[in-house]
Amino acid sequence: MQGLMRGYIRGVDAVNYRLGRVAMYGIFVLMAILLWSSVSKTFFLPTLWTLEMAQFVMVGYYVLGGPYSIQLGANVRMDLLYSEWSIRRKAWFDLITVCFLIFYLSVLLYGAVSSTAYSLGYWKDAPFSYLFGVVIGTEEVGRMERSSSAWRPYMWPIKAVMIVGFFLMLLQCVSELFKDVLRLKGQTI
């Protein structure tokens, strides 16, 4: 069992590390979009797409960088008490809190899948079956959701990014849970 846990930890950590290293450069994309927005508003006709695209890039940056942040332990923590605790006590505390985080991310993932199915034009109550093709038959399909801004981009791409990001965060949290279990058993990771 410990071998499976270690394999899972290595696999998920490797994927999230690489994706996080790529996602962190999204801040430069965001800066370029905002710079172009400022230049175009000052010297040319203002562009309609820049601010909304900056929001989309920021969502991608934040959501895809989340698993990397969890992996590095760069999340906010109350170090007033935590820093003085033993490794075993930290592992117990982290084990409990990561369970709450897993529940929260599961709810976010369900909402993201539901919202993505809606943005693709599906309005029934089983978004997973629609997105993953479990049920074939009478689906209620409508028009694809677009933003209400003047630019009117489709919403499903950024919502799909949210699904991927929440799923990877969930996988990383399970990896952290396994790390805490191994620490409690006295194993090194």
TrEMBL record:
GO terms for molecular function: transmembrane transporter activity. Residues 30-181 form the Tripartite ATP-independent periplasmic transporters DctQ component domain. It is a multi-pass membrane protein. GO terms for cellular component: plasma membrane. It is found in: Cell inner membrane. Pfam families: DctQ. The keyword Aminoacyl-tRNA synthetase does not apply. The chain crosses the membrane at residues 21-39, 51-70, 91-113, 154-174. The keyword Cell inner membrane applies. It comes from the Bacteria. Part of the tripartite ATP-independent periplasmic (TRAP) transport system. The complex comprises the extracytoplasmic solute receptor protein and the two transmembrane proteins. This is TRAP transporter small permease protein. It comes from Roseobacter litoralis (strain ATCC 49566 / DSM 6996 / JCM 21268 / NBRC 15278 / OCh 149). The lineage of its organism: Bacteria, Pseudomonadati, Pseudomonadota, Alphaproteobacteria, Rhodobacterales.
